[in-house]
Amino acid sequence: MIQVIAHLLQRIRELERLARHDSLSGCLNHYALQETLLNQPRQIAVIAVDIKGLQRVNLEKSYEDGNALIIRVASLLKKIVRDKDNVYRVGGDEFLVLLEDCNLSDALKIKQRIDLSEVDLYIGVASGYDLEQVIIEANKNRDDIKRLTSKRYAQIKSN
Questions:
Q1: What are the tens digits of pLDDT across the range 44-72?
Q2: CB within 8 A of 55, min separation 6: which ones?
Q3: pTM of the predicted structure, to 2 decimals
Q4: Which of 84, 101, 115, 120 might form a disulfide with 52, Cβ 3.0–4.6 angstroms?
């Protein structure tokens, strides 16, 4: 009977882990992010990351190559952030890095380390005390970068 209970408890822990983690990248997922929103630390910075060209990789090469790129980015982000920080995969090619007790200056230093990688990424950064608003701002900053670089590319291509 004790072995059965121990086995059930182990399965429950495994199911809880699976519910909070993305199966491909091993990052925390959107569900885990929602839990974090309820228990946010005082000051937080967010780095919003989008993989440039993932759709093109999927279509021109293969979905296996696209998955390998997602895993590579997840590994890179986990390696660069501090132990107390968390990396979330919140969409197909989108990640959020939550940096606890981190100001904008320190977050920008971490962003610079990400920029040094050999992976093309769109990155937005924000910091503040309201996690939900900081996420919105970081996503907006990332999307602004996407728009600016896309317009620049379109202008160069049309000349």
A1: 999 999 999 999 999 999 999 999 999 99
A2: 93
A3: 0.82
A4: 120
DSSP class of 116: T
Taking the C-alpha atoms of residue 23 and residue 101, their distance in angstroms, rounded to an integer, is 28
Instruction: Determine the pLDDT at residue 21.
Output: 81
Question: Could you tell me if residue 15 is inside a domain?
Answer: no
DSSP per position, 74-97: HHHHHHHS-TT-EEEE-SSSEEEE
Per the structure, the count of domains in the chain is 1
Query: What tokens does 136 get?
Result: 């919105």
Asked if pLDDT for residue 140 goes beyond 90, the answer is yes
**Angle, vertex CA 36, rays to CA 83 and CA 120, nearest 5:** 60
In-domain check, residue 111:
yes
